[in-house]
Amino acid sequence: MIHTQRPPSVSGSIDDPLAAVLRPSPGESPHDKELRLQREADAKRISDRIDEQLSIDRERYKKSKQDVRLLLLGQAESGKSTLQKQFQLMYNPTSLEEERISWRAVIYFNIMRPVRRIFEGLDAFGDSDDDDDLDLPGSSKIIASSSDLTQLSPELTASGSSSSPLSPASAAAEDAQIALLRSKLSPLLAAESSLADRLSGGLNVAGSGKGNVYVRSGWQARSLNLPFGRSRSRGDSVTGGRTSISAARSSLDNPPTGAGGDLLIEEVARLVDQSKDDIKQLWQHPAVRRLRARRKLRLEEWAEFFMDNITRVCSSGYVPTTDDILHARIQTMGVAEHIFDVAVHGRVVTWHLFDVGGARGQRHTWIPFFDDANAIIFLAPVSAYDQYLEEDPRTNRIDDSLQLFTQICSNPLLKKVHLVLFLNKTDVLQKKLSRGIRVKKYITSYGDRPQEFESVVNYFKAHFTQAHKRNNENKRVLYTHLTSVVDTKATKSIITNVSDSIFRKYLEDAALV
Ligand SMILES: Nc1nc2c(ncn2[C@@H]2O[C@H](COP(=O)(O)OP(=O)(O)OP(=O)(O)O)[C@@H](O)[C@H]2O)c(=O)[nH]1
Ligand SMILES: [Mg+2]
């Protein structure tokens, strides 16, 4: 028989420090005993609570492993956040309702910026009368972005682009009108940077050439002191540790409020209401129409949308409509996680939808989200053929989208992820083509193919499909949809369809595990 000495660490209760603490002292009085029992009961309660929390966490973790994780990827302005709003509208409409009024600030900002750009355009090109479609990178165009004159009636376009020079008297009269409008709108323009600061929480993002404003997740709720439903940034999430959003505190966290709410926003609301007729006059001014007709001034689609709705949007008591919210533009910073419960085939599954910032400087923040993603919706704005990246004015936006899509298809972490491609902004593409903005001029390989929607879309689609095929060892299916994600009815049916296919793949994967 072997006798061994017990090592001190496993020795019995005699040497156990914990037991020593809990052991009654030899001469324990009844009062001491009561205190000791109380201590023991407290310790047990705390220990039970820790066990309970650990078990909840374990359950939550196990359950969250069963959740669906969907990433929305694509370059800046491709429509990711707009698509996220459509998901929100379908699966968590109350939260959109709660934040509805907070969108006013973004929409006011979406009005101030184009007003300033119009004046900049008039300063730079007001006198020149060369008819122009110069969209070469590095050209001196003031606004190297998006849309065109699709909203102009032929009559306006004809008068606006008239090549007959103005008489000196007419030119002087126009100059005086513009100068007056500039002076009347100067208080509004003076408020632009305060509003930008309020929206971004003072964050300045390097490389935002147009002075764009980035917001991080949850700004709507912070602006109203609301709980943000079940939407949160990854930085706030229970899993934590993969924060990609700057923790800079937003001034929206504590906006100075008065009886009517945020004082700055109320002041801006008063200013836009006062200025609405002048803004309208500016927007419809012949000098501005001429600039737009010559494409010297090209405003983004949302800017045109709000300019066309100026009286309604600037009137006092304005509450944004859902359509307004879908058109509102604010750049996403980092990665924002939105959580929805989705009922598919009679089963409710929690979906985590990750809406990322698409600008080049934001893309590194996507990577930590790749390893447990189930599905990706990649958005490529097919209307962007005549645009260049704001971050890199030499890169055509379609080209960038294609390169980005190739990287996503070939990324080893994403090889098994269900892949959906949205060829988005088809409505804008239609309008550009009907305006005669030639594809060949920007995408030379398009050659002499027809300037028709079908042909253009098929051409781009073929390139994306090709990029997918070249990087598809796993024979994964690519689901492609032509979309305009501002169109609620059409997008709803696509989301239903996509959710269904994502869920089917999810069930297949679960069965294999
Ligand atoms: N007309 C039209 N506008 C669209 C469409 N998709 C998006 N937009 C508008 O384009 C703008 C940019 O869309 P966002 O959803 O903010 O773009 P994003 O991909 O989230 O951009 P980042 O956050 O910068 O990465 C918004 O004003 C949208 O209303 C579309 O299909 N048609
Ligand atoms: Mg966004």
Automatic annotation (TrEMBL):
<dbReference type="GO" id="GO:0046872">
    <property type="term" value="F:metal ion binding"/>
</dbReference>
<dbReference type="GO" id="GO:0001664">
    <property type="term" value="F:G protein-coupled receptor binding"/>
</dbReference>
<feature type="binding site">
    <location>
        <begin position="326"/>
        <end position="332"/>
    </location>
    <ligand>
        <name>GTP</name>
    </ligand>
</feature>
<dbReference type="GO" id="GO:0007188">
    <property type="term" value="P:adenylate cyclase-modulating G protein-coupled receptor signaling pathway"/>
</dbReference>
<dbReference type="GO" id="GO:0005737">
    <property type="term" value="C:cytoplasm"/>
</dbReference>
<keyword id="KW-0807">Transducer</keyword>
<dbReference type="GO" id="GO:0031683">
    <property type="term" value="F:G-protein beta/gamma-subunit complex binding"/>
</dbReference>
<feature type="binding site">
    <location>
        <begin position="424"/>
        <end position="427"/>
    </location>
    <ligand>
        <name>GTP</name>
    </ligand>
</feature>
<keyword id="KW-0342">GTP-binding</keyword>
<dbReference type="GO" id="GO:0005525">
    <property type="term" value="F:GTP binding"/>
</dbReference>
<keyword id="KW-0547">Nucleotide-binding</keyword>
<feature type="region of interest" description="Disordered">
    <location>
        <begin position="230"/>
        <end position="258"/>
    </location>
</feature>
<keyword id="KW-0460">Magnesium</keyword>
<feature type="binding site">
    <location>
        <position position="332"/>
    </location>
    <ligand>
        <name>Mg(2+)</name>
    </ligand>
</feature>
<protein>
    <recommendedName>
        <fullName>Guanine nucleotide-binding protein alpha-4 subunit</fullName>
    </recommendedName>
</protein>
<keyword id="KW-0479">Metal-binding</keyword>
<dbReference type="GO" id="GO:0003924">
    <property type="term" value="F:GTPase activity"/>
</dbReference>
<dbReference type="InterPro" id="IPR011025">
    <property type="entry name" value="GproteinA_insert"/>
</dbReference>
<dbReference type="GO" id="GO:0005834">
    <property type="term" value="C:heterotrimeric G-protein complex"/>
</dbReference>
<feature type="compositionally biased region" description="Polar residues">
    <location>
        <begin position="1"/>
        <end position="12"/>
    </location>
</feature>
<feature type="compositionally biased region" description="Polar residues">
    <location>
        <begin position="240"/>
        <end position="254"/>
    </location>
</feature>
<dbReference type="Pfam" id="PF00503">
    <property type="entry name" value="G-alpha"/>
</dbReference>
<feature type="region of interest" description="Disordered">
    <location>
        <begin position="1"/>
        <end position="40"/>
    </location>
</feature>
<dbReference type="InterPro" id="IPR001019">
    <property type="entry name" value="Gprotein_alpha_su"/>
</dbReference>
<dbReference type="InterPro" id="IPR027417">
    <property type="entry name" value="P-loop_NTPase"/>
</dbReference>
<feature type="compositionally biased region" description="Basic and acidic residues">
    <location>
        <begin position="29"/>
        <end position="40"/>
    </location>
</feature>
